[in-house]
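tokens incoming
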């Protein structure tokens, strides 16, 4: 028996049916379907060149579309990444393709579908599916749907097999209900990110340097800024020492007051400017702003 392992990631749009009429006008998180494999194969290359993969993703899209979703188009996103990176193929790319697609899609939620395809002599086929919803900024798990397996069928329409599993026993509805409940907390508290501020040999300032007449430490002033700018003052310190100040959870809003998207990159820009201004209060030394590094829900900044 030949076994193929497929994994599909979704990023989708939650509709009024999910969020309620009172919040949908302000919060409209986005979703797209993206395949990858545990085996290390370039699943995106397979998607572009294998109709079987296209069929599976199309059927998953349909399952969400029939329930009011509007998934973002994967192929269009891939095309934009290729254009931006000036490449003709994602195969053997010298950058993190998955992260590049996340950045291009700019979605709020990733739903990963782990799918095993079992084939018996190419005639009787079955699939095994489980779903996991993940918040994009923090990679925090929101909701899981247990694994389910279809009976063997004499068909090569793998999209049909996936659709059958999702619709039987109201699995897709249960998944959406669970995702909805988890997402309501994000709407209320904000997206969770982590922050690391480090001192290196090149840093002119130290986290325990005293600033101003009140002799506040730089780390204390940075913490005060985070407290004031975190969504609903939701933040938690992980480590506070002379060389590192880290927060294992800082909540940021999904949208600005004007309704525009607010991303971790926006917060990174603000905090890097704030740190430069705080350090510049030290007498006799001008602080040069350091560009923040943003990766997988974490902001990393080296103290000036």
């Amino acid at each position: 028996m030949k076994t193929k392992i497929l994994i599909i990631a979704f990023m989708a749009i939650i509709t009024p049916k999910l969020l309620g009429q009172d919040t949908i006008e302000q919060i409209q998180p986005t979703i797209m379907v993206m395949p990858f494999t545990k085996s290390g194969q370039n699943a995106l290359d397979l998607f572009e060149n294998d109709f079987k993969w296209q069929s599976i993703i199309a059927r998953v899209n349909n399952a969400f579309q029939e329930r009011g979703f509007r998934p973002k188009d994967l192929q269009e996103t891939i095309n934009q990444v290729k254009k931006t990176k000036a490449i003709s193929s994602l195969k053997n790319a010298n950058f993190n393709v998955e992260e590049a697609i996340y950045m291009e899609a700019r979605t709020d939620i990733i739903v990963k579908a782990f799918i095993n395809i079992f084939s018996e002599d190419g005639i009787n086929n079955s699939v095994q599916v489980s779903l996991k919803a993940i918040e994009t900024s923090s990679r925090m798990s929101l909701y899981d749907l247990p694994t389910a397996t279809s009976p063997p069928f004499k068909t090569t329409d793998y999209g049909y097999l996936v659709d059958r599993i999702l619709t039987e026993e109201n699995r897709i509805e249960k998944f959406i209900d669970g995702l909805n409940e988890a997402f309501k907390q994000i709407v209320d508290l904000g997206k969770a990110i982590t922050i690391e501020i480090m001192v290196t040999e090149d840093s002119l300032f130290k986290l325990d340097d005293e600033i101003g007449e009140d002799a506040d430490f730089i780390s204390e002033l940075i913490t005060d800024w985070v407290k004031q700018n975190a969504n609903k003052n939701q933040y938690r310190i992980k480590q506070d020492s002379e060389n590192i100040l880290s927060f294992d959870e800082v909540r940021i809003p999904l949208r600005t007051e004007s309704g525009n998207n607010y991303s971790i990159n926006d917060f990174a820009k603000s905090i890097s400017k704030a740190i430069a201004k705080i350090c510049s209060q030290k007498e006799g030394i001008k602080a040069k702003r350091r560009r923040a590094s943003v990766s997988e829900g974490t902001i990393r900044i080296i103290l000036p």
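note: Residues 2-187 form one domain.
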